[in-house]
Write a structure and sequence with these properties.
This protein is mainly α. The protein has a two-stranded antiparallel ribbon. A hairpin with a 6-residue loop joins strand 1 and strand 2. It is elongated, with a radius of gyration of 28 Å.
Length: 411
């Protein structure tokens, strides 16, 4: 059993997704930096010719001695040509003259990466015809196909796949192109990837599947594509990540009603618990998603209403822990079997939870409804090198958190 007071504020999966989001934001800032180079006076005549896509002048100026010229940020002549929307002919000339197509800038982007991010299909085709490595990785371990998936460039994704792009290759966080397309809600790219045989249930670094991402973000069409699948390949609506979250957990946590209804129609289990003992109802309560709570109960019954997680919290406890919605708490207290003074396995009540987190309005409401301030929770104390149990009232929990002055007049 977990210790309520040491419950992490977010799960490992959420922590990873936060880092992934930050990583992709940093990626975008780096790629934009390369796509908007400062044309300094130090640029050579040849570099300037590439920047205006003057193929005739490039042919006249290029030699064995200057063919590998780079800017201060590591941009080759081929990078410059692709940034400037160079023609297939210019790209062909540069590659034939010996410019290395796989050279990376200081920000770790190849010409193909930059052309893909820009959505320049002509440059991409020109590079691929020049025998560029379609699966070369760069910044954040991303290939051109990952980048096309991130940006929603379905035509470029198709072109890359036709040139043998590795459809299931993982990036630095083990996200496949399908993961990324689902994360950003690009349904057309998802459709292309599925058509070309992407693994629909492929696992990320914490066991997160594409459907977990789509459901958590509320992308209805992407969710439908995955669940309906292609041929015999369909996403499992009850698939679990490493913390045993199913897609409906993330959907309820984020509050996406349309996706919730769709998953329920597809036989998603509404009462399944993750490794923390949280059902979808718990997560909806922790995150203040009132309408999700109401829909879950009205459509799936009361099976989860009194379930405790490993932190001895029922959905009512969870709602009082978050303190985000008094309407939700009122609704839960109206449900059969829900008792305001119910004590979890460790003895703490919903009133304890509200006091511990300093939710004054919730505390006032619970008192009005008959919360017993004298009930005690049994808390483990390991100070002094030995473990002992100490019985604590809700007021003691508030005092421990420095909230006693806030609650003094309320209680």
């Amino acid at each position: 059993m977990g210790n309520y007071k040491s419950r992490p504020s977010i799960s490992c999966a959420d922590e990873l997704k936060k880092k992934i989001s930050e990583s992709y934001s940093l990626f975008r800032s780096h790629v934009i930096e390369d796509l908007r180079p400062v044309r300094e006076t130090e640029w050579t005549e040849l570099q300037q010719a590439c920047s205006v896509c003057d193929t005739s002048k490039v042919i006249a100026l290029i030699t064995d001695h200057n063919v590998q010229e780079k800017t201060d940020t590591g941009l080759t002549l081929l990078h410059i040509a692709c940034i400037s929307g160079g023609s297939k002919h210019l790209i062909e000339v540069l590659i034939q003259k010996g410019v290395r197509p796989g050279a990376l800038s200081k920000n770790q982007f190849s010409a193909l990466h930059l052309a893909t991010y820009k959505g320049d299909i002509d440059c991409v085709q020109g590079l691929l015809e020049g025998s560029v490595d379609v699966n070369q990785t760069g910044n954040s371990g991303l290939t051109a196909l990952h980048i096309a998936a991130m940006c929603g460039h379905n035509e470029i994704a198709t072109c890359l796949l036709e040139h043998d792009a590795n459809i299931d290759l993982g990036d630095a966080v083990d996200f496949s192109p399908l993961h990324i397309a689902c994360n950003f809600g690009h349904d057309k790219v998802v459709e292309v990837l599925l058509k070309y045989g992407a693994d629909i249930n492929i696992s990320g670094s914490v066991g997160d599947r594409p459907l977990h991402l789509a459901a958590g973000k509320g992308y209805v069409r992407v969710t439908q594509y995955l669940v309906e699948g292609t041929g015999n390949s369909k996403a499992d609506v009850n698939v679990k990540d490493d913390e045993e979250h199913t897609p409906i957990h993330f959907c309820c946590k984020s509050g996406h009603l349309v996706v919730l209804h769709y998953l329920l129609e597809q036989k998603a289990d509404p009462h399944v618990a993750n490794i923390y003992g949280d059902t979808p109802l718990h997560l909806a309560c922790y995150n203040g998603k009132v309408e999700v709570v109401k829909q879950l109960i009205s459509r799936t019954g009361l099976d989860s209403i009194t379930k405790e997680n490993i932190f001895s919290e029922t959905p009512l406890h969870s709602a009082c822990t978050s303190g985000k919605s008094l309407d939700m708490i009122k609704f839960l207290l109206d449900q059969p079997g829900v008792k305001i003074n119910y004590q979890g396995k460790d003895g703490h009540t919903a009133f304890h939870s509200a006091c511990y987190h300093g939710h004054i309005r919730v505390v006032q409401y619970l008192l009005e409804k008959g919360a017993d301030i004298n009930l005690v929770a049994s808390v483990s104390d390991q100070s002094g090198g030995s473990e002992r149990r100490e019985d604590q009232t809700a007021i003691m929990w508030a005092f421990e958190q420095g909230r006693i002055s806030d609650l003094y007049y309320t209680c």
